[in-house]
């Protein structure tokens, strides 16, 4: 699947126009005008979702002085053999309203056998890796929408960014008769709406937003959910995140991410696995938190995880006149959770995942293929998606 995907990315990329300054990591012939278009039919096997089929696409429109692009539009239609649907339409305008960046999305998710292992760092000790076992699952539907306005209050070159936004989602829950969810009946088993007011700030010194080699970004994010925001549940959350990139040589970069997410109040169980911030993650477990562990294997009110990647720039290729950057990574992920009222084990009992992967990129478009293994269980997982993990 990977080779056809890369060819489609290359062939769909629109020809660039007038020459300008080169983008980081690409040959001098690269420009900052024109467009890149991705149109990618998918028929893949995902360790978390089974055989998936559908289509994903993206349009990046570039313009002088617009970084990393002038407009970005992404869309996905996806179905899987395990009953997962994940459809979205997203927009990103880095300088749409003067200096303000507008980001927005419409989403619909439907999952048969969505994972639920209970709360805490030692949840479901009898689980043996069968993600189709109804004991550890429930059916979920979740249409939603969100928007965010982001700006630089001290000028376009200053590293401080702030944002405000709103997210709404309606979650339907259908629990199986003999599942852990039916037995435990945590808050949220009735489903309902969660409207969240979002506020945050970032200190961003990265040399490139989509494929950084140097610098970093620190973020603090707050989310508040209550009756005034259109939510059935009253809770609040705070996310602290640090991403750092150190260029070790002309081809080697060390990338590091630390994330701490804390929830307070009457938190529905389907929020235990979610984090806040500009880049929302799930976990602990899965392609956005700890690779190699089953998706959302460990969840709770407090989550912490760290990701370390050694990224190698292997080559720049010219295919059909288009520049493609080829890279490879090795990684180590660690994560754990804490939850009130349950045993979370000793402080040093973290859940690790190790592995490696391939990266293929053209300007803002990046294809990611990762293979990961849990060192606790020996189980292995594969992930194919777009963009760096962080």
From TrEMBL:
Coarse class of the protein's main subcellular location: membrane
Ranges in a coiled coil: none
InterPro entries assigned: Bac_surfAg_D15, TPS_OM_transporter
Record-annotated Bacterial surface antigen (D15) domain positions: 151-388
Keyword hit for Membrane: yes
Stored Gene3D superfamilies: membrane protein fhac: a member of the omp85/tpsb transporter family
UniProtKB keywords: Membrane
Intracellular or extracellular location(s): Membrane
Full protein name: BamA/TamA family outer membrane protein
Species for this entry: Myxococcus landrumensis
């Amino acid at each position: 699947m990977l080779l056809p995907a890369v060819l489609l990315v290359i062939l769909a990329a629109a020809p660039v126009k007038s020459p300008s300054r080169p983008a980081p990591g690409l040959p001098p012939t690269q420009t900052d005008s024109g467009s890149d278009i991705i149109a990618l039919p998918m028929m893949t096997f995902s360790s978390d979702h089974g055989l998936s089929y559908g289509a994903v696409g993206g349009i990046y429109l570039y313009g002088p002085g617009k970084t990393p692009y002038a407009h970005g539009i992404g869309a996905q239609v996806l179905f899987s053999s395990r009953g997962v649907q994940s459809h979205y339409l997203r927009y990103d305008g880095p300088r749409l309203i003067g200096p303000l960046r507008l980001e927005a999305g419409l989403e619909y998710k439907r999952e048969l056998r969505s994972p639920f292992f209970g709360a805490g760092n030692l949840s479901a000790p009898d689980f043996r890796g069968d993600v189709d076992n109804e004991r550890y699952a429930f059916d979920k539907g979740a249409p939603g929408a969100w928007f965010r306005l982001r700006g630089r209050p001290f000028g376009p070159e200053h590293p401080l960014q702030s944002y405000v936004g709103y997210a709404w989602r309606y979650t339907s829950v259908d629990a199986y008769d003999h599942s852990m969810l039916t037995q435990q009946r945590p808050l949220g088993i009735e489903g309902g709406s969660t409207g969240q007011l979002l506020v945050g700030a970032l200190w961003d010194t990265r040399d490139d937003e989509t494929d950084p080699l140097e610098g970093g970004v620190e973020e603090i994010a707050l989310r508040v959910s209550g009756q005034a925001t259109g939510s059935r549940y009253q809770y609040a959350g705070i996310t602290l995140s640090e991403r750092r990139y150190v260029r070790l040589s002309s081809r080697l970069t060390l990338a590091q991410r630390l994330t701490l997410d804390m929830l307070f109040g009457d938190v529905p169980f389907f929020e235990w696995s979610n984090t806040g911030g500009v880049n929302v993650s799930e976990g602990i477990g899965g392609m956005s938190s700890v690779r190699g562990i089953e998706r959302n294997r460990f969840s709770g009110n407090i989550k912490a995880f760290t990701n370390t990647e050694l990224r190698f720039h292997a080559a720049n290729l010219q295919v059909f006149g288009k520049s493609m950057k080829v890279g490879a990574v090795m990684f180590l992920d660690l994560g754990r959770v804490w939850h009130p009222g349950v045993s979370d084990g000793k402080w040093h009992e973290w859940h690790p995942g190790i592995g490696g992967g391939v990266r293929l990129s053209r300007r803002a478009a990046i294809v990611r293929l990762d293979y990961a293994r849990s060192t606790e269980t020996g189980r292995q997982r594969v992930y194919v998606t777009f963009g760096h993990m962080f």
